[in-house]
Here is the input.
Amino acid sequence: MGSIIPEITLNDGVKLPVVGLGTYTLRGSEGVQSIVHAIRSGYRLLDSAYNYENEGTVGEAVRRSTVPREELIIASKLPGRYHTYDKAVKAIQESLYRAQLDYYDLYLIHWPNPNQGHYVEAWQALIDAKKWGLIRSIGVSNFLPDHLDRLIEQTGVTPSVNQIELHPLFNQAEQRQYHEAHGIVTESWSPLAHGNEVLNHETIRQIAERHGKSISQTILRWHVQLGAVSIPKSASAARQVENLSIFDFTLDEEEMKQINGLSRPDGRIRNQDPAVYEEF
Ligand SMILES: NC(=O)c1ccc[n+]([C@@H]2O[C@H](COP(=O)([O-])OP(=O)(O)OC[C@H]3O[C@@H](n4cnc5c(N)ncnc54)[C@H](OP(=O)(O)O)[C@@H]3O)[C@@H](O)[C@H]2O)c1
Here is the structure.
């Protein structure tokens, strides 16, 4: 089956499907099977990370799928412990060896780790790795406007993507405005709030029922209409297909407003504020 997912063009011309597959916890042979199924169902963007320890699983699924490599968008992320320039370059190479790929389509700095303070060096390594042909598009994850300003000021290169926590309980309105003003695409992590109580939310249920859709589909449609790329993770073949079946209905302005109204300042699901939280 071909892909039916609309695409969004990044500031460097690379195109991303507006829905991709999150792969956190998809590992080993079961993970490979899940990812192969997802590709067969139409997923083209696969979101991985060095720290998920599943770049090998993703690479194996890519080789087992019948979709040509160049039609897939494979993403990974640089861990915090490798932010100094030389370590970052080696980690990017190691990421490629693990996946047995010649290049990543998208590579992100996973967290800014502002107290550690080496993220500009890490960014320079991504800029160079792109020049060397190891990465097609470079971006970041969990960067606040201050961190992005610093990258842009010190290197002149604006990230193509910022992957951030974004779901109905935490809709990141200000951060999205900043991205829009700087031509950065917003990518939503934990778009379904990690499958928490939001998947039983009464307000979203009523909207979903009106459209004959599930709560998950309604939330993923909301992400599309916000202009964000989302990467729901599902190990289940049926739920993977369900999560892609969101291009045959539209939420009206009032419905968008109702879902936006669920956002709360303390809505982060794991209390990971990038101003203080660091991950290595
Ligand atoms: N950059 C970062 O710092 C960062 C942080 C967190 C996550 N991420 C990325 O974002 C991806 C997605 O985030 P996430 O995995 O935390 O959470 P998520 O995608 O919001 O939710 C995944 C959970 O929802 C369930 N689910 C999926 N589709 C469903 C459906 N249609 N109906 C009911 N339940 C459904 C899944 O269970 P089943 O698998 O059983 O379907 C799983 O338990 C990750 O996999 C990772 O790639 C990035």
